[in-house]
Amino acid sequence: MGWEPDRYLQFADERLRPALDLLGQVALAAPDRIVDLGCGPGNVTRLLSTRWPKAQITGLDSSPEMLARARAALPALRFELAGVEEWEPDAPPDLLFSNAALHWLGDHEALFPRLLDSLAPGGVLAVQMPANFDAPSHRLIRELAAEPAWAGRLGAARMGAVLGLADYHRILAPLASRLSLWETTYWQALDGPAPVLDWLRGTTLLPYLALLDAASRTAFLDMLGPRLLEAYPSSPAGITLFPFRRFFILAQR
């Protein structure tokens, strides 16, 4: 699955807002070791570095394209090419911060306890994940991909998933000294002729488009675009409201 940093950053402010909200709830005064799990182009890594300039910060991502952008933007910081699912820290971190990345991975029943257990005593696991998978936008993608014209090629595509917040409480509460869970729906006001399609092309659609050739990608997007416009009509002023639900998890070892 190839990421396009420029397309992802088209909505940089909207994508950064949840990270800022999560960061504001992290009460650590001076963590020594911080890892940004799924750092992408480094925009959240920059926030971590600004707040804790003396910390040793590592950005971790499985996308060479995203890491190239991050390294160019933040040459003084360390970035590592690896997937979270196989990564193990060199030394226990004081903070594992992850913004909109862990929903791509499976087996959260095992993943989240492992991440929490990898922390130094008193360390914090801070996670934000999209939880919009039942929204019309995501449902329309799955419905189109399941139609006979596409099912043979797109049956293996996966847009990510999350458990319920009650499940994360069940998984983490016995292991954490402190645990906070909450959700927020961001009513994003987007502009442009097809803003919801543009948003989805930067993230959710990537596993689907990666399975298609150029002509088929164009055909798939041409079919999806009008359905999204019907589900998310723009106002007379040209603004499209795109509600987006997100889960937050803050667990201290």
For the record, what CATH class applies? Alpha Beta
Element-level helix/strand string: HHEHEHEEHEHHHEHHHE
Shape: globular
Return the CATH architecture: 3-Layer(aba) Sandwich
CATH topology: Rossmann fold
CA gyration radius, whole angstroms: 19 Å
- Total DSSP E strands: 7
The CATH homologous superfamily is called Vaccinia Virus protein VP39
- The number of distinct structural domains comes to 1
Description:
With 253 residues, the protein is an alpha/beta fold. The chain has a single domain, classed as 3-Layer(aba) Sandwich (Rossmann fold), CATH 3.40.50.150. It is 40% helix and 22% strand. The chain has helices spanning 5-8, 12-23, 43-51, 64-73, 108-117, 136-146, 148-154, 165-172, 195-201, 206-209, 214-231; strands spanning 33-37, 56-61, 78-81, 95-99, 124-130, 178-191, 239-252. Helix 5 links the parallel strand 4 (95-99) and strand 5 (124-130). It is globular and about 50 Å long. The model has no long low-confidence stretch (mean pLDDT 93).
Brief synopsis:
This protein has 253 residues and is an alpha/beta fold. It has one domain: Rossmann fold (3-Layer(aba) Sandwich). The chain is 40% helix and 22% strand.
